[in-house]
UniProtKB/TrEMBL annotation:
Organism, as annotated: Puniceibacterium antarcticum
CDD domains: DCase
Keyword Hydrolase in annotation: yes
PROSITE patterns: CN_HYDROLASE
Protein name: N-carbamoyl-D-amino acid hydrolase
């Protein structure tokens, strides 16, 4: 029997000139609050340490290397690691990783209550585009600044359960969830930065975007019988709005905690990980019911091929 109090630490907008130290102080304030509430595991968003810079274009991408971390942990985040160790709290957060080989990834890590990095995940599904597109009102240049992740979706045992990660756009792809589900995942943490502005469709307002976010996380959790924490960096960043809507979802696909505002905010839920067993042993007993002989296209074909007329 594993029960645990889990939390999502939503972070309000981070402006361009905010320092890592200032952001880490905000993260620690939420961690202090979480500790008072008995939280054992806390999830922070995608790219927690900096503004969501892929909205800006630079010709020479090296000019943006200052948004990246060349080691983890480093001096800026050390106080967060120390506070978590003091509290015996596990955590996860996202940051931009620049490897010694000069590769750029959108990364997140799971850290044990002892402060050890147990798992590193590099974002697989990079939305947006690689070049400046003048017809867009807002640029989304993740494909310019990051390589597609090379880790795949892995899990780790920590704090008595099986944990895994996705990052932002990954939550919309059932394939991400299923690969984690096939490893018995019981808690998926997903950080996100989702711009509210729409570039190419006037019909798609914030309500629809929010619905698609919740739909994706609830479906992923239900169909793999896992808890999920989906946590935003949101609000206004340098004049650009990103929606909030951080949620914790149970293995039945129900939202059990939800952020009310668009600033720094803690959402907390009691998780009983035994509840993962029901779905995993009945309707989503993969071993009993999956038919992999019919799923080949999923792993062999990227785009749609329609039949000939
Ligand atoms: N950060 C991130 O992946 N955001 C995307 C925005 C998609 S619209 C270009 C998301 O899926 O939320």
């Amino acid at each position: 029997m594993t029960k645990m109090t889990i939390a999502g630490a939503q972070i309000g907008g981070i402006q361009k000139d905010e320092t890592r130290e200032e952001v880490v102080a905000r993260m620690i304030a939420l961690m202090d609050d979480a500790h008072e509430k008995g939280v054992a595991f806390i999830a922070y968003p995608e790219m927690t340490l900096t503004t969501f810079f892929p909205r800006f274009y630079v010709e020479d991408r090296a000019d943006f290397d200052h948004w990246f971390e060349t080691e983890m942990p480093n001096a800026s985040v050390q106080p967060l690691f120390e506070r978590a160790r003091e509290y015996g709290m596990g955590f996860t957060f996202g940051y931009c990783e620049l490897t010694p080989e000069g590769e750029h990834f959108n990364t997140s890590i799971i850290v044990s209550p002892k402060g050890e990095i147990l798992l590193s995940y590099r974002k697989t599904h990079l939305p947006g585009h690689a070049e400046f597109e003048p017809e867009r009102t807002h640029q989304h240049l993740e494909k310019r600044y990051f390589l597609p992740g090379d880790t795949g979706f892995n899990v780790v045992r920590s704090q008595g359960i099986i944990m895994g990660m996705s990052i932002c756009n990954d939550r919309r792809w059932p394939e991400s969830w299923r690969v984690l589900g096939l490893q018995g995942v019981q808690l998926v943490s997903i950080g996100y930065n989702t711009p509210s502005q729409n570039n190419l469709s006037k019909d798609e307002g914030i309500e629809r975007r929010m619905y698609h976010h919740e739909l994706s996380v609830c479906a992923g959790a239900y169909q793999n019988s896992t808890y999920a924490i989906a946590v935003a960096k949101c609000g206004m960043e340098d004049g650009n709005h990103m929606f909030a809507g951080s949620i914790i979802v149970d293995p039945d696909g129900f939202v059990i905690a939800k952020a009310q505002g668009e600033g720094d905010e803690l959402i907390v839920a009691e998780a009983d990980f035994d509840k993962c067993t029901f779905g995993k042993s009945t309707v989503f007993n993969f071993d009993a019911h999956r038919r992999i002989e019919h799923y080949g296209l999923i792993a062999s074909q990227t785009g749609v091929k329609e039949p000939s007329e």
